[in-house]
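Example 3.2
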Amino acid sequence: MRLIALRAAQFRRFSDGVAVDHISPGINLLAGPNELGKSTLFEALEAAFLVPHGTGGARLEGFRPRGGGEPLVEVDFETGGARWRIRKQFGRGKTAILTNLDTGREAARAGEAEAQLSRLTGTGDGPGRIGLAWVRQQRALQAPDLDVDPLTGKSKTRGEANALTALLAQEVVEAAGSGLAEDILAHARAELGQYITPGRDVPKRNGPYDTALKGREAARSDLVRARDVAAASEARLVRIAELSARLRDLEAPLAAADLARRIEDLSKAIAAAQGHRDHCARAASDLKSRRLEAQAARDALDKAKAAQGRAAELKRALRDAQALSAEITELAKAFNANGATPQRVVQLENARIQLTREQQALEGMSTFVEIVPAEGAQGKIKADGVPVIHAARLPVPERLTLDIAGIGSIRVVSSDAERAAQIARRRDESHKLIARLLDEMDVTDDAQACAKAAERVDTGARLDTLRLRFAEVAPRGVAALETELSNLAAVHAECDETRLAAALEDGNAAVRAAQQAYESMVAEGVDEDRFRVMTGELDAARREFARRQDDARRTSELLERLRGEQAGVDEEGRAGEVERLSGLLEQAEETVRRCETDIAALKLLIATLARAIEDVRTCYLEPVTNALLPYLKQVFPGAGVAFGDSFSLEALMRAGEREDFASLSDGTREQLAVLVRMGFAGLFAARRAPVPLVLDDPLVYSDDGRLNAMCAALNDAGRSYQIVVLTCRQTAFTALDAHRLTLAPWPGS
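Structure, written as tokens:
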């Protein structure tokens, strides 16, 4: 298909009719300033081919100009060797007329006209090839996406056709040899969806497969319950016989009487032994009390001895701490009185260095005046008020005044007096700083200052050593030692070691007497092991007696319950129920097998058709890529591209590196998007189904070099199919070998 002419009236900004005639088969360029109506013309072109004449709502209102009106679009085009005209009126007078220009006859109207137009242009139920080759303003940055509507830029809803999907479907139809391939695939998926949930491969709730599985499970459960009931009845009869024999044994009178007598004998023996055990316990308690009293006397005596030893240690530590404290106090006074700190010594050294530098600087910049008094004139010349007796060479750092008696004065001024004055002031400040530091350190020269500083360092080291020793002797200070010593003295005063020793001896004697009494009493009674054995035998006999009574009671109750459950059980009827439920389970399993067979067959059919579609997709991708590469290499030498499953452009391959489409610059993405659409247009032309490539304000982000390369690619493409470029940049596309289009009035509107 190629465009011949485009006309529009009462369409957006075109209140009056406007026409673009004589559109060339090659490259066409419509250049003009902003608001000329280029995007409106593009939208009118889309409306003519892709928008139903009966459309309404927001889209219709978007077509109308501000003053209102009934939008009208007319396009002349050529396809299949014949020339046609589609005329669409929107709004109240809505209509669509398709005319054969070669015969001058009307071919169809309204819906039939649009249906025939779709067949002529290959748009089908959607944008078709046009959707891949027409690029509206502000969408050039996007690569072709089969899930996006080219008219609205929005994601497609389920069931909407798109360009490449329709083309791929046609390829599958041809490959399968049947026009029903897509219908079969859709029907198979719908049928499979009745059995299992799509995408999850689990039974669809309340579907035939789910119902069959539930029926099989119910049949299994019923059969299991019936078998369990039958088995329970059989087991119950066996159990009734066993319990009857057991109850007879438990209720035998001789065994119960023997067990009762044994319990009575053991109870009497244990009561006698327990009385003796109580006497032994009291003796043991008395022995424990005597041991505690003796231990208390021993602890008090040990405490008194420990306090006496600790007091002696504290006295020694107190003497040492007091001596160290006095020595530390004296050394601290000497240390603090020594003003020769390291900081002051460093300041003195730095001041001496600075003074030397300033004197050297003054001498280096001074002017010298040599004065030689004449014989007999000694003292008649004064330099700054000082008489010159002998020949002298005097420096003039700033200025020097020579007074000659009876003659006058001569003032010698240095050429850099101001700088010399600054240096002289700094020299005086250095002299003052040195004098102040010597005074603060109480010394007369630097040597004394260094010696005094060394003495201060030595004193500080001795002071640190004494403080460490003091911290070892008295960690908490002298006062803490004195307090602890005073407390120990009070403790010692309260303790009488002689009395405590006598109390300890008495306590030990009492312990020996209590120990003897306890051992004698233990020897007269039942030993502990025998008592534990007797107690255990009594507990076992009592438990056995209670167990036999409880066992007899529970056995009797269980026997009565089992006899009640078994009454009226029909063994023959129960067996028949098991057989009937077994048959129902076989039927349910057969239903499940049929469903699973159907599911497997549908999955196989879907997989086979999907593979066929994928094979066609793969075969289709290669021609698209081959059509694109010649144009791509003109703009991006040595580069390649990577497409996604939906033929969307995913990445640019350069220098062995993959660059995602979204990460590229706006200019590069724009260029690639246009190149991809050129590839599709080239593919359609090669398959003898050409469509014009229409670009509305393309390549706005391209630099001059890339723009020229793109123009060269478009020039090559223009030899194979029609290209229409709409742009506001009137000088940008000078490298494009294009036929210039103009807007003209449309008298026929």
